[in-house]
């Protein structure tokens, strides 16, 4: 299934060029075009395209304002920003609002095709995860896991940790214990609350409620640092080889893509690294679903 795409740009030449490139490359189908943010928001909310190509600066309502309006109205598609602006603050704000990529003006056919190809891959991965979740919902997976199953869970988790390059991180043992615990005590396909999981794993490490609370916080911090290491590994691979299979698979599946892009930017420009942020819940939920999917296969 091809991507459905909406183009929002006040430049008629730019709109025409983008539509021609999309039609010719065959990655997606243009559902419509708009010459301003207000008109574009109305059309997008009505037709719900998979992807929106939107200009950063428009006379009536700029791209960032339009994206904010759309997200507040419940639209959850992907955004690609079109701009000739190089202002780092504006670019950073756009990423924070949820864009996936930038396409620079003047329009370059190769860049447009490359960006659309990457967004298409990310879209397919997200559909894959959604399909896994739907498939698991149809399975009867209630009840405890046998000891043999526990060992199998550990083997699956270790394989994923190795692919992410974090098997040697101190938090990897916590992730293994957490996944074993979550799968052993699962009652449905939903992922348990993180606090509940941390405490359950902590019980296997410590005795006494005071120690449990302290250990739960320590587990969270170790896992956070380990996930950050995975993020750095993926960003490093992406800088070296953007088409690397591990990067193409794991980066958009386990992380918010704007976090990957920002981390790559920091590394590429040799900026002073900050603490960064990671979405622990998303990472562990995807890890849990992928582990279940591999077990069931």
UniProtKB/TrEMBL annotation:
<feature type="modified residue" description="4-aspartylphosphate">
    <location>
        <position position="55"/>
    </location>
</feature>
<keyword id="KW-0597">Phosphoprotein</keyword>
<dbReference type="InterPro" id="IPR001789">
    <property type="entry name" value="Sig_transdc_resp-reg_receiver"/>
</dbReference>
<dbReference type="InterPro" id="IPR052048">
    <property type="entry name" value="ST_Response_Regulator"/>
</dbReference>
<protein>
    <submittedName>
        <fullName>Response regulator</fullName>
    </submittedName>
</protein>
<dbReference type="Pfam" id="PF08664">
    <property type="entry name" value="YcbB"/>
</dbReference>
<dbReference type="Pfam" id="PF00072">
    <property type="entry name" value="Response_reg"/>
</dbReference>
<dbReference type="InterPro" id="IPR013972">
    <property type="entry name" value="YcbB"/>
</dbReference>
<dbReference type="InterPro" id="IPR011006">
    <property type="entry name" value="CheY-like_superfamily"/>
</dbReference>
<feature type="domain" description="Response regulatory">
    <location>
        <begin position="4"/>
        <end position="120"/>
    </location>
</feature>
């Amino acid at each position: 299934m091809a991507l459905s795409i909406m183009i929002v740009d006040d430049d008629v030449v730019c709109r025409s060029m983008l539509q021609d490139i999309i039609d010719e490359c065959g990655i997606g189908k243009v559902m419509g075009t708009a010459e301003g943010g207000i008109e574009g928001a109305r059309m997008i909310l009505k037709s719900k395209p998979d992807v929106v190509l939107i200009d950063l600066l428009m006379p009536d309502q700029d791209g960032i304002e339009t994206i904010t309006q759309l997200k507040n109205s419940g639209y959850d598609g992907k955004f690609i920003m079109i701009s000739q602006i190089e202002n780092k603050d504006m670019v950073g704000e756009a990423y924070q609002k949820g864009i996936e990529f930038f396409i620079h003006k003047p329009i370059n056919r190769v860049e447009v095709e490359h960006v659309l190809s990457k967004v298409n891959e990310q879209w397919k991965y997200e559909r894959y995860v959604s399909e896994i979740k739907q498939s698991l919902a149809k399975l009867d997976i209630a009840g405890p896991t046998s000891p043999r199953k526990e060992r199998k869970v550990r083997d699956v988790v270790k394989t994923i940790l190795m692919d992410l390059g974090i098997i040697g991180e101190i938090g990897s043992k916590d992730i293994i214990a957490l996944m074993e615990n979550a799968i052993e005590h699962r009652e449905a396909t939903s992922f348990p609350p993180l606090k509940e999981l941390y405490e359950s794993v902590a019980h296997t490490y410590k005795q006494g409620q005071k120690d449990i609370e302290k250990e739960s916080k320590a587990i969270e911090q170790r896992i956070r640092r380990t996930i950050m290491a995975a993020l750095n590994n993926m960003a490093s691979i992406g800088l070296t080889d953007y088409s690397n299979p591990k990067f193409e698979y794991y980066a958009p599946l386990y992380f918010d893509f704007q976090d990957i892009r920002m981390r790559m930017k920091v590394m590429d420009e040799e900026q002073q690294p900050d603490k960064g942020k990671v979405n622990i819940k998303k990472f562990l939920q995807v890890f849990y679903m992928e582990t279940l999917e591999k077990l069931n296969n």
